[in-house]
């Protein structure tokens, strides 16, 4: 019994990453866990070394390290509990002011008790090993089941790639007169009247520019859904979401079916069947990164950039709440933010590369989800570099206030400044596409949803629906296609109009509806009507 080895810190170091991955197995490849697992193991080794210097006892140092890991990786979950339970106004109350001192106190008390105990801690070590092993078995079993289930329901080609069923059984077209089609998503770009009313931008330079270049800008445009994956799963399949058809549980928060619908979408299969080459960009947001496109482009090279999975893991720790305070220290405050630099480079390069698309062979379908002017706010109105004060995060609405410790005025100012610079980039890109295309292309510039200064992910009644669902929606449809769009068209009908006009289809237009849903209940759709029109 005296030879019980304390392996529980090692097992606990693996648990947070595998637990998070077990809930996202179909959204990410297995390789996404490598860096977080290595980081957790290094952190655990440092803790063992540090606590070993304090206690001079391997069992005590191991228990102290495990105690630290439990507090460290459970912090974000406890924070959310406090936030939901006690934050009457999430914009003004910070649950971290309660939890940070409490966590520090619990860590200190645990270390002192371990330091002073006279017990050999053999029995405690044995039970800690058992408990850690059971914890680890749970996500491992879930990953195995999910992997087997995904393998059974995903059709594969003989070469091992995922099969995509054509929208129709037509043979590839030889007609090279089809126009190039650009589908460009500006994440969170608001409608002109929303910008005037809420963001002190009475005249949208982009809207005026697009109209001058021949675009039809939808004056009363609304999003069909308030979240990116919901919106794009709908528009890229030109249909409303339905649990029976799309394979999701209406009471679930599992977004895997949405990711699948985006990756295996009807628009791309329809166009491939007609001889189109599909082009997609890495967006920095995995669910909208269509790696199965015929041409997949990454705007940035080898730069340091935490992906969505790694950011999600860090959100379970105290780091997002500690770094904003540390940012004001002289040394740390003077450091450039590497993730912000990487994202700025990615956004700029995406606009440049889109402007270069006309040089590629036609016909082609180009899809680009640009994660801006959505937070984080990285640009001033003239392209000045802005770094988040603290941990780099993609949160929006009340989650943005919580993570950054900011208020609504900070959001309004940051969004307004960033949007003005993005307008300049969009204008330059549109000029490049139109001026260099040998044949007039189809261009759709559309937001997936609106901004989130007045968004509460937990309460629809505290959310400004016009802001969240009022979007930029602009169409360049040469050859008379603009006669088919109208003043309240929504994204679900975008490709119905395009396919009807340019390909002779007879797709019925659907009712233009908008829906709001909470973050933790994405499929509980609340119909939103006239208030956003």
Write the layout of secondary structure elements.
Layout: H1 8-22, H2 34-55, H3 58-86, H4 96-116, H5 122-153, E1 181-186, H6 192-198, H7 205-212, E2 216-217, H8 228-235, H9 243-246, H10 256-263, H11 266-272, E3 277-281, E4 295-297, H12 308-314, H13 319-326, H14 330-333, H15 338-355, E5 364-370, H16 397-404, H17 408-436, E6 442-446, H18 465-469, E7 473-476, H19 494-503, E8 514-518, E9 521-528
Parallel strand pairs: 1-5, 1-6, 3-4, 3-5
Antiparallel strand pairs: 2-7, 6-7, 8-9
Helix pairs in contact: 1-2, 1-3, 1-5, 2-3, 3-4, 7-17, 8-10, 15-17
Keywords:
47% helix; alpha/beta; Alkaline Phosphatase, subunit A; 7-stranded mixed beta sheet; 2 domains; 19 helices
Characterization of the model:
The structure is a single chain. This protein is of the alpha/beta class and 533 residues long. Helix content is 47%, strand content 8%. It contains 19 helices and 9 strands. Strand 8 and strand 9 (521-528) form a beta hairpin. Mean pLDDT is 86; it is low at 87-93 and 154-175.
């Amino acid at each position: 019994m005296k030879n019980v080895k304390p392996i529980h810190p090692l097992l606990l170091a693996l648990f947070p990453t595998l637990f998070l991955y077990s809930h996202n197995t179909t959204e990410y490849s297995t390789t996404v866990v490598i860096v977080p697992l290595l980081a957790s193991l290094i952190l655990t080794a440092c803790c063992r070394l540090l606590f070993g210097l304090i206690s001079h006892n391997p069992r005590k140092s191991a228990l102290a390290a495990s105690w630290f890991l439990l507090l460290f990786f459970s912090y974000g979950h406890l924070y959310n509990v406090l936030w939901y339970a006690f934050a009457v106004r999430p914009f003004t109350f910070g649950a971290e002011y309660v939890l940070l001192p409490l966590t520090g106190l619990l860590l200190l008390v645990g270390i002192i008790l371990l330091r002073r105990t006279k017990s050999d801690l053999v029995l405690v070590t044995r039970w800690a090993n058992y408990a850690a092993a059971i914890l680890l078995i749970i996500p491992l079993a879930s990953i195995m089941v999910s992997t087997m289930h995904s393998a059974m329901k995903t059709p594969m080609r003989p070469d091992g790639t995922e099969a995509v069923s054509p929208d129709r059984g037509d043979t590839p077209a030889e007609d090279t007169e089809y126009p190039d089609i650009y589908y460009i998503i500006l994440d969170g770009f608001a409608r002109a009247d929303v910008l005037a009313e809420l963001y002190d931008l009475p005249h949208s330079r982009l809207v005026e520019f697009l109209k001058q270049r021949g675009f039809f800008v939808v004056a009363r445009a609304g999003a069909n859904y308030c979240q990116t994956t919901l919106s794009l799963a709908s528009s890229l399949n030109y249909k409303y979401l339905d649990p029976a058809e799309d394979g999701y549980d209406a009471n679930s928060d599992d977004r895997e079916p949405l990711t699948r619908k985006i990756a295996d979408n009807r628009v791309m299969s329809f166009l491939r069947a007609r001889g189109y080459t599909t082009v997609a960009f890495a967006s920095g947001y995995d669910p909208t990164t269509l790696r199965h496109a015929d041409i997949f482009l990454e705007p940035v090279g080898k730069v340091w950039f935490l992906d969505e999975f790694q950011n999600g893991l860090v959100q379970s720790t105290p780091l997002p709440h500690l770094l904003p305070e540390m940012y004001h220290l002289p040394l740390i405050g003077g450091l450039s933010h590497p993730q912000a630099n990487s994202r700025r480079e990615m956004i700029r390069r995406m606009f440049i590369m889109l402007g270069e698309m006309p040089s590629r062979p036609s016909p082609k379908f180009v899809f680009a989800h640009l994660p801006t002017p959505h937070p984080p706010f990285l640009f001033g109105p003239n392209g000045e570099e802005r770094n988040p004060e603290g941990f780099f995060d993609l949160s929006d609405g009340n989650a943005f206030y919580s993570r950054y410790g900011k208020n609504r005025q900070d959001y309004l100012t940051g969004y307004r400044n960033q949007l003005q610079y993005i307008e300049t980039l969009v204008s330059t890109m549109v000029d490049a596409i139109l001026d260099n295309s040998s044949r007039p292309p189809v261009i759709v510039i559309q937001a997936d949803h609106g901004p989130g200064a007045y968004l509460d992910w937990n309460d629809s009644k505290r959310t400004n629906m016009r802001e969240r669902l009022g979007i930029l929606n602009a169409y360049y449809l040469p050859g008379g296609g603009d006669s088919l769009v109208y003043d309240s068209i929504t994204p679900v009908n975008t490709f119905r109009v395009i396919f009807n006009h340019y390909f002779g289809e007879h797709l019925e237009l659907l009712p233009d509806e908008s829906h709001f849903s909470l973050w933790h209940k994405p499929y509980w759709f609340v119909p939103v009507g006239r208030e956003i029109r």
